[in-house]
Design brief:
The chain is an alpha+beta fold. It contains 10 helices and 8 strands. The longest helix is centred in the middle third of the chain and has 55 residues.
Length: 384
C-alpha cells in the first residue's frame, strides 16, 4: 500500500508539472502568432529562428520531465541554427526536428488539457475491493489510476518527441562532419608539430654533424688531433640527433605501447610523472586481448596530457588513473585533488584531447569546478 501511495504521489507531481507546462503552452500561442505574422510581413523574419530555438528549449524541458518519470532518455536531434539570417531561416524551416517539436506541441494542446480534468479527481481516492467491484471507503487496494495516467501521458510525449530517423541521420551526418573537421585540424597540428620538431631538433643537429665531419676530413692530414676532436663532436651530435628522432617517434606512436601495451605504458607514465600516481586497472591485463592501436594511442595521449596538466597547473600533490574495459570500448579516467578551474581555451591541451578522441567517435567529460577536484573521463569505442 505504501509503495503504491508513493508511486501515486510521484505520478501526481509529474502530472501537475505537465499540466502547468500545458498551461504555459497555451500562453505561448501568442508568441507563435506574433512570429507567424512577423515572418509573413518579412520585417519580422528574424523572429522565426529565435522562436524555433525557444520551442527547442520547451521540448527539451518536456523530454527531461518525461525521462525523469520513465527512466529512459529521449534523444535530441537538431541542426545548429547559426550563421547569417538566411542560413538561420533555412535551417529553422528545413530541420526535421522543427516539425517534430511542432507536431508534439499541437498534440500537447489536446492531451495536456485532459490533465486539468483528470487531476482534480485524484482526491476522491477510488478503491477496488478484492472481487473487482468499484466501491468507496471499503478495505481494499488503492487503484493506481493516476500512475496509469502518468504512464499514458509519458508514452504519448515519448512517441511525439522521439526524433524521426531522418532527423537522427541528419544529426549524425552533422556530427560526423564536425568530427572530421576536428580530426583534420588535429592531424594538421600534429604534422606541423612533427615538422617543427624535425626542423628545430634532428635536422639542425644533422646539419651540424655534416659540417663537423667535413671539417674533420679537411683537418685529418695536417692536424690529426683536431680532426679527432671534431669526430668526437660529430659523434655527440649524432647521438643527440638520435635522441631528437626518438622523441619525434614517441610523439607519433610511443614504442612503449607496442612493447608493454596500454597498461604497462600508463604505469610507466605514472612512474615518470614526478607525482604519486595510483593506477587502477579493471578488466585489462598486461597479457590478454588488446584494444586497437589507434585506441591505445589515444588513451595513452589522454593520460599523458592529463598528468602533464596535473603537474603544471593543478597544484595537486597526487593523481589517480583508472583504465576500465567496457563491453564496447575503453574508459580512461584521470583525477586530481587540485584547485580545479581547468580551462580548455587556456592552453591546457584539453582541446587537443577532445579532437583526438572525437576522431575515434569517443566522448570526453571534464568536471573541474573552482576548488577542485578535476576529473577527466574519456570513453573510446572499440571491439575487443
Amino acid at each position: 500500500m505504501r509503495a503504491t501511495m508513493r508511486q501515486a504521489g510521484r505520478a501526481t507531481v509529474h502530472l501537475t508539472v505537465a499540466a502547468a507546462m500545458a498551461f504555459g503552452m497555451y500562453l505561448f500561442v501568442t508568441v507563435l502568432l506574433i512570429t507567424a505574422v512577423g515572418t509573413l510581413a518579412v520585417i519580422g523574419a528574424w523572429l522565426l529562428p529565435e522562436t524555433v530555438l525557444l520551442v527547442r528549449r520547451i521540448a527539451g524541458a518536456k523530454r527531461r520531465l518525461t525521462t525523469a518519470w520513465t527512466g529512459r532518455a529521449i534523444p535530441e536531434a537538431y541542426r545548429a541554427i547559426e550563421g547569417p539570417l538566411t542560413d538561420r531561416l533555412r535551417t529553422a524551416v528545413r530541420d526535421p526536428g522543427t516539425l517534430t517539436d511542432l507536431r508534439w506541441m499541437a498534440a500537447y494542446y489536446v492531451y495536456g488539457a485532459l490533465l486539468f480534468v483528470a487531476l482534480p479527481l485524484w482526491p476522491l481516492g477510488l478503491v477496488v475491493d478484492g472481487v473487482g467491484c468499484a466501491v468507496l471507503g471499503r478495505r481494499a487496494v488503492v487503484l493506481p489510476w493516476i500512475v496509469r495516467l502518468a504512464d499514458l501521458e509519458a508514452h504519448w510525449s515519448t512517441s511525439l518527441l522521439r526524433p524521426s530517423p531522418k532527423a537522427l541521420l541528419a544529426a549524425r551526418v552533422e556530427q560526423l562532419t564536425a568530427t572530421r573537421a576536428d580530426a583534420i585540424a588535429a592531424h594538421g597540428a600534429e604534422l606541423r608539430r612533427i615538422e617543427r620538431d624535425l626542423h628545430d631538433g634532428a635536422q639542425a643537429r644533422l646539419v651540424a654533424l655534416s659540417m663537423r665531419i667535413g671539417l674533420a676530413k679537411r683537418a685529418y692530414d695536417r692536424d690529426p688531433d683536431a680532426a679527432r676532436k671534431l669526430l668526437d663532436d660529430a659523434q655527440e651530435q649524432a647521438e643527440q640527433a638520435l635522441t631528437e628522432l626518438r622523441h619525434v617517434v614517441r610523439g607519433i606512436h610511443p614504442p612503449i605501447l607496442t612493447d608493454r601495451g596500454l597498461v604497462g605504458a600508463v604505469r610507466a607514465l605514472a612512474a615518470g610523472s614526478g607525482l604519486p600516481v595510483t593506477v587502477d586497472v579493471d578488466g585489462l591485463a598486461d597479457e590478454g586481448p588488446r584494444a586497437p592501436a589507434a585506441v591505445e594511442a589515444a588513451g595513452y595521449f589522454v593520460v599523458a596530457e592529463a598528468l602533464t596538466n596535473v603537474a603544471k597547473h593543478s597544484g595537486s600533490p597526487t593523481a589517480s588513473v583508472r583504465l576500465a574495459r567496457m563491453r564496447r570500448g575503453l574508459r580512461v579516467v584521470v583525477a586530481d585533488e587540485g584547485h580545479g578551474g581547468a580551462d580548455e581555451s587556456g592552453g591546457s591541451g584539453l582541446l587537443g584531447v577532445r579532437r583526438r578522441v572525437a576522431a575515434l567517435d569517443g566522448t570526453v567529460r571534464v568536471s573541474s569546478p573552482a576548488g577542485g577536484p578535476t576529473v577527466i573521463e574519456v570513453e573510446l569505442p572499440c571491439v575487443w
